[in-house]
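Why does residue order matter? Because the sequence determines the fold. Keep that principle in mind as you read this record.
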Amino acid sequence: MDVTFRNGGLRVDYNEDGFTMRDVEAICRISSTKKASANQTGEKGIGFKSVFRIADEVLVLSGNYSFQFDARRKLGMITPEWVDFPDGIRPGFTSIILQIRKEEDERELIQEMKSMSPKHIIFLRRLRRINISIATIDGTSWETSLSRKEDEVSHNGSRRTMTLTHNDRTLNYWVYQHVVKGLPPEPKRAHCSQSVIVLAFPVSNTAGSAFDPVAEPQQVHAVLPIRDYGFKFLINADFLLIASRQDINASSPWNKALRNAILDAFWGAIGLLNAGPLRKQSEGKASAKRYTRIS
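Structure:
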């Protein structure tokens, strides 16, 4: 994926098969703001129509479709107009251009782009790399690249090692997947009684370190980061979030069940760490204390 900010506009290009008619109809519906496919990130609270929080005009080129939404028109957020896409068409890519509404939104957007970390993409299903480029009106420019790579995967997919790269900096994680069963009924998760918790433990693989544990603050995710709750390892689960998406809904029985299952996931991971190649040779075991100290 390439994300570019230039001349007050944000452009996103990503390689995919392209929109179908069903996808276009889905993002046009009042009751649906995402492509018509299950388990999309949009289901977690980030739908297509969220672009209108910062933009009035949105241009889309995908597959055989080239159209725009204009929020300044009556029903403009749900009735696309067929238009020719501007220059810079990339075959095999879906391209989206947002014309940012306000200068303060531009400044906030640039700040958010510069604060992006490879941890933002560690739990995404398909996205492997983001190239970010900013060119401001005063002539200054800024670029960065974020990527992730799965290095080793167990036969059943329950554990793996992963490398995150931010320009020339590398972050290494040992990732463990734990299945949670018997979850309470939840209207937003219809017909679903089980889910998956994923823990990602930061490790160092510098010369001679034999994958030492790295104890530093890590965030809790619901696919994308929520915030830091004081853990020394990343946690990803299908938490229900409050409207702002900045915190977990603490009153939800579904969330409480997932929270309680984190302990089982943690001890399952520690048992495998102690039995596997990440075991600290100098101490005999990868102590859980390294990952449970609270700052």
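Confidence is low (pLDDT under 50) at residues 33-40.
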